[in-house]
Structure formats: C-alpha cells, structure tokens
Design a protein that fits this description.
The strands form three sheets. A nine-stranded mixed beta sheet has the order 16-13-12-11-7-10-9-8-17. The protein has a six-stranded parallel beta sheet with strand order 3-2-1-4-5-6, sandwiched between helices. Strands 14-15 form a two-stranded antiparallel sheet. The two termini are 40 Å apart. It has two domains: 149 residues, Rossmann fold (3-Layer(aba) Sandwich); 194 residues, Dihydrodipicolinate Reductase, domain 2 (2-Layer Sandwich). Helix 4 runs parallel beside helix 5, helix 5 packs antiparallel against helix 10 and helix 8 crosses helix 10. A hairpin with a 2-residue loop joins strand 14 and strand 15. 34% of the residues lie in helices and 27% in strands. By secondary structure, it is an alpha/beta fold.
Length: 369
C-alpha cells in the first residue's frame, strides 16, 4: 500500500464505535470514509451525530448493507463492532475482500472461531487486531519497568483484577449482552476479556497451566432463549508459581482495578481498562514497612505515584487514538504483524477454559499440554 493514510470503514453503528470514530479522527494517518448499517436511515443519523463532534471532510459515506462497504475501493480497513455471534463471518468476509480487520472483543464465541478468522487474514495478507485499547497506552511501558526493576514489586507472586459495572433494568431488558444468541459469553466475554488480557500481558504471554472458573449468577433478556453469565470469577495458575484471579460482573458497580503483588511490594492500577478523566494515566507502587517498638506497632505506607502524560480519552495521545495509529502503521507498511492475532487467540483460549470449568461445576481445566 503506497498511500500514507489508512481509509477506514465501520461495520455497524454500535455505541462503542462513537469513541473509535474519535480515535480515527485524531490519528493523523487515518481517515473514515464509510459506515454501514442494515438500516440506511439509521446509518445516516449515526454519521450526522458523530460529524457534530469529530467532522471528517468529506463526511463518510453511508451504506445500507455491509456487503457494499466491503466492496468499496475507498476502504482499506474495517472496524467491526458487530455482535459476537456474527463477528467471525463478517471478519472473514472482510479479510477475503482484502480489508484489514480491527475486531471488537471477544473476538469469537470460541477459540476455533478465532483460528478461522486469523487463517482468513493470513491468506489475504491483511492485518488483524482486537480492540483492546489499553494495549496501546504508554502506561504499560511504565508498569513493565516497575515489574522488571527487581525492587518495586520483587518476584511477582499474585495478580488480581476486577472489571465490573452495575447494569440497570433497561440493560437486562434490551441490551444484546443479555441475549445468549447475540453475546453468549455475557460478562465473561465483554469484561473478562480485559482481565485475562491484562494478566497475560503481565505474564509475558505465558499461558496458565490450570484454570478454574465459576459462574456466580446468570440472567437473560426476555426474548433470549437462554441465560448468559452476568457475575463471574476465575482463578489461574502458572508454572512458575504465580497465581491470578479475576472478577467480572454486570451486577457490581464500576470497578476496573488491577493489583500486582510480589515479594517486596505491590503495584496498584485503579483504572487499567478505561483511564480516569484527565491528562495523566497513573498507578501506584507501595512498599509498606511494618515496625514494632515496644508498645508501638506501626504500618508505614511508602507509596509513590507514577504517571505518563496521556489523556484519558478523545485526544491525540489517548489510548484509542494510539490503537488506530498503530494499526494504520502496520496496515500501510504492507507487512502484517501476526503477533496481534497470537495474543487474541491466547486470550480466547483462557476464556474458553474458564467457561468450560464453570460449566463443569468449577473443576480445574488443565492447559499444560
């Protein structure tokens, strides 16, 4: 690809795509040329709304079906936020049409779905990436420095994370994430994907050897044939003695923290998925000291705050902008990087094992083979 600008199309008018519209707008090597929906009027209204906040010149073209967008010679890459059950088919069709593919998470309903998507991208020589924005935050570099310095955390022993939000009655009545034929993985796919991804990132992409998962609650939309997980926890065990747990839920109010504990201290990230509003992405490192002198028992805090200058959202250096900028660099280079597909598959494999365990009553699943 000789051009210097990656021309994007969006398949669908999902709410999260509005944020990514702004990410495309703020990335200097990207532009948005098309949006598709099965309802042309809905598509036109969607474009009109987003143009008020981040106006492209010329405005993206509205297509009344996905096939027309994929056939367009004005689109190089597609962002695909369609429901999980149809992601595989449209991702494969996009790849076969020669379009680079940025796919929402979970990438598929199963690991086999992910393998088929990645195979299609390899055959067509197109770039694949999933839409985990925090992977593109500069804060990760700073956290990695802390983990590697040998003093701040020491030898890593434990990883814990929570990602939750308290859904209201309307969510469980109308949202696709409460319908098992649209989003069969429920909170595990929607939120747990991030917990698993962060854990694997901390572990330098080593898979756990054993996994145990527990569905704590299920619910369904009135028109859903079956329930989906809405409250879920899991425990992961790694060969080097590190253990991890995570909790994801549609029932518990907003939490999105991660804790990395070791032999000398711990790191705490209060907002590992969606950075808090402001100009910095920060975290804390603590090395508490406990002293006893006579009748005085003192717990000294010794916490320091570390941060990178990176705006929380909607700016030129926000993580969603960095994601589109990095994707465009890879797409425009003509040399797709298969590593992004590898980590997506690993994330899905761990997710699958967590769900398999939960469905078997919490039995341990062996991933060491």
């Amino acid at each position: 690809m000789d051009q210097k600008i990656c021309r994007w199309g969006i398949l669908g008018t999902a709410g999260i795509a509005r944020k990514n519209w702004k990410g495309i707008f703020n990335a200097e090597n990207c532009t948005l040329t098309a949006v598709a929906s099965r309802d042309l009027k809905r598509c036109q209204s969607y474009i009109a709304l987003c143009q008020r906040y981040a106006p492209f010149d010329p405005p993206p073209r509205a297509f009344g079906c996905y096939e027309e967008l994929l056939a367009s010679d004005t689109v190089d890459a597609v962002y695909l936020p369609l429901p999980t059950v149809v992601r595989k088919s449209w991702a494969i069709r996009a790849a076969e049409a020669g379009k680079h593919v940025l796919l929402e998470k979970p990438v598929g309903a199963t690991s086999q779905d992910v393998r088929e998507i990645l195979a299609a991208c390899r055959r067509s020589g197109v770039q694949f990436m999933d839409g985990v924005m925090f992977m593109h935050s500069r804060r990760l570099e700073k956290i990695r420095e802390v983990l590697a310095d040998g003093q701040s955390v020491g030898t890593l022993k434990r990883i814990a994370s929570h990602f939750t939000f308290g859904a209201d009655e309307e969510f469980f009545a109308t949202n696709i994430r409460a319908h098992n034929q649209l989003e069969p993985l429920g909170c595990l796919g929607d939120l747990g994907w991030y917990n698993i991804r962060f854990t694997l990132w901390v572990m330098d992409w080593k898979l756990p050897t054993r996994v145990a998962g527990h569905t704590l609650a299920e619910q369904r939309r009135p028109d859903s044939p079956g329930p989906v997980p809405v409250d879920f926890s899991a425990e992961l065990f790694f060969a080097d003695g590190v253990s991890a747990n995570f909790y994801c839920s549609f029932l518990t109010e907003i939490q999105q923290w991660a804790m990395l504990g070791g032999t000398k201290g711990f790191a705490y990230v209060p907002d590992f998925v969606l950075p808090r509003y402001g100009a910095e992405a920060a975290f804390e490192v603590s090395n508490p000291v406990y002293t006893v002198a006579g009748c005085d028992f003192n717990m000294e805090d010794h916490t320091r705050r570390l941060a990178v200058r990176e705006y929380g959202n909607g700016s030129e250096n926000a993580q969603e902008t960095n994601m589109f900028r990095r994707f465009a660099e890879l797409a425009l280079s003509g040399r797709p990087d298969g590593w992004w597909g590898e980590i997506a598959l690993k994330t899905q494999q761990v997710l699958d094992a967590c769900l398999e365990s939960a469905r078997s009553g919490g039995g341990v699943i062996d991933l060491s083979a």
